[in-house]
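Forgive a beginner's question, but would it be possible to get a protein, spelled out as residues, together with the matching structure tokens, please?
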Amino acid sequence: MPLSRRDFTARTVIAGAGVALTGTVGALATAPGALAAEDAADRDEHGRPCEPGYGPLVPDPAGILALPAGFTYRVITHSGVTRLESGETTPSHHDGTAAFEGHRGVTLLVNNHELKGRRENWARPVPLAEGLVYDPAAAGGCTIVEVRRGGEVAEWVGIAGTSTNCAGGATPWNTWLTCEENSDLAGRNGMTKDHGYVFEVDPHDRRANRDPRPVKAFGRYDHEAVVIDPRQGHAYLTEDASGPNGLLYRWTPPRGFRHGRGRLRTLAADAGVLQAAKCTDSSGRFVDDLSRATRIGTVYGVDWVDVPDRDARTVPVRRQFEADAVTRGRKLEGMWWGDGGAYFVSSYAREESPGAAHDGQVWFYDPKRRTIRLTVLIGVNADPSADGGYDGPDNITVSPYGGVVIAEDGSGLQHLFGATDSGRTYPLARNELNIGSAEEPEYSEFAGVCFSPDGRTLYACIQDPGIMLAVTGPWRRAR
């Protein structure tokens, strides 16, 4: 049932309360500590305003990762350096990741490898492990990384033969959903099977990953990320695409379906209902693109519109709608479930223009109110080569210490940065690994980011060539 204007107003009174930021996206500051909307956590015990975060970043003598004082890191996997149990080196281009609790103090991580196209185009594709291959022509997939209590690390293939495994999402039953950000059909670009699907990977049971099967019920398009509502069972999914811009999706399970390990792969291709979001403002006006929002605290009502053809063999899903039927977002990126809803990233925060620099947004979808609220707004970074600003938000995780942590995928220096519940940003790490030259430095972007189940370790991935890092330190609420 569509939201009426009265319904929308009633459901957004609380969601938008107390927000008083004004200004346009282009005018917003992005420096650490830039003022968004204040709350009680933005002040110290004496009521004085204070800076969020953990202080300035200290340069790393090893030239890998700058961190605040008191924090340390160690390399968990490194493409071309560390090895899988089978003997091959760790694949390249680390991306989305999540951590799960294993037996006897073990942490299990699933790590995507964003490798597009044919295997021969890459020096270190995901190995074609027996029984774990979907399309033998494709280079991407996931590895599972086991970090033992004593610090020892083991790694093996979770799935191979998939394409452009970008983000994904952890499930409430402790598996990983890996997303293909590529929708090549069989016969195109050397592929032997259709792509553009979501696959489930179980870090706890190697046997469960054999004979990979796509979750076709979630649709075939350029998937970025996915989360599962643990109460209602809905899946929410982002699409990273343009021409036209991508969509936010919701999948509703069929009547009687119960989630659990391995159950998604049993679904028929047309099981449940796949829908795309259509947003309206408080006046009931249709919102064609999320870039229209220029203030933190903006709230839109959300209706859901049925997808006509989810497998999209002739017309991509995002092109199956009339212009006024759905709300689009330019480069919809990472998602993470927390606080009773889904946080998701739009990597641009204004109308599309060719060659435009990144800015970005973080939204929160509240399934009870059927609203989205703009929680973080990042302006254009005037000088990406200088420290102190951010651009191109990508993957995201909810922090056990309040707010969210975001991976930067923009220009110039690349950061992990936090955002408080009120939208203030602060630095957590800076990538100092120059993969260019002294004359023309180029810093590989951060990709996947997540906390360990006990909240003591932050795992972060640098994409090219591919490094996973474990960061520890004096964590506390980042105000």
